[in-house]
Amino acid sequence: MAALRWLTPRRRSATARSVLAGEASAEAARKSSTDLEPTPDAPSEETAGTAPEAEFPVVGDQRAAAFFDLDNTVMQGAALFHFGRGLYKRKFFDTRELTRFAWQQTWFRLAGVEDPEHMQDARDSALSIVKGHRVAELMSIGEEIYDEYMADRIWPGTRALAQAHLDAGQKVWLVTAAPVEIATVIARRLGLTGALGTVAESVGGVYTGKLVGEPLHGPAKAEAVRALAGAEGLDLGRCAAYSDSHNDIPMLSLVGHPYAINPDSKLRKHARAREWRLRDYRTGRKAAKVGIPAAAGVGAVAGGTAAAIALHRKTRR
Length: 317
Known about the structure:
It contains twelve helices and eight strands. The protein has helices spanning 16-34, 45-48, 79-89, 95-111, 116-130, 135-150, 156-167, 180-190, 219-232, 249-252, 265-273, 297-316, and strands at 65-69, 171-179, 194-198, 200-203, 206-211, 240-243, 257-261, 277-279. A six-stranded parallel sheet has the order 3-2-1-6-7-8, with helices on both faces. A two-stranded antiparallel sheet has the order 4-5. α1 (16-34) packs across α9, α3 crosses α6 and α6 packs across α8 (180-190).
């Protein structure tokens, strides 16, 4: 019966840790963006041929900016999952830990919700892996992993939306629970302004294995956007935000132009009730209708399920 708790969505409001995580992420984002030299990949033909809406964004409105969720909004699948694959390839952790991570991913995809205890376990696992490693090392590896696993998973339609804001002279930020260093790498490669992400504590350029606040998720994302807007002098009523997940409703509700991109069923329902704009770049039957992110792909779910079965059998033995 314990597993059924994963099927029940839980509402969370902003806490002191959410605010701390958001403020730390905003500070890290502003610091990294000052030195960020965009090296965007060449746009695909599909991206180049996608036209933005005529009335939005408003050209020259520098008090406006755009905030994009990363997983399943800009990129197919989860950035942290792809990053984990790259670290496993480089022997940062063993097969047992990979199997455990695959089990967690399977539950998330099947349940379609994020359980706080699940997130805590995943967070602790990730922190234990990077503890003692240098920040510069992870940044360098992140560049390699982007080329290996992420570059071909960018949604051209969402990228075109981001480019429309850039062309209008506005700043564009990624907002993700992934580590801010990895998010910054992705933002740089896409030619964006910078990234808001989870901030892991480091001393002398070495990870301590602790977080500043909590993962940038749910209410913490909204706090990060609020803090960054205040520091940048933005008018949130003129800003836009894009996400696929109902977990990001706090962030979407902050801005004057919320968009539901490849939305899950709960976000789709919420967006329609409030007449938010929707965009869906997936093809075929939408797996979101049954609570499984379509961008994950059948292969990812099948692979996670196989790993879960293997782990279950091992536990029984």
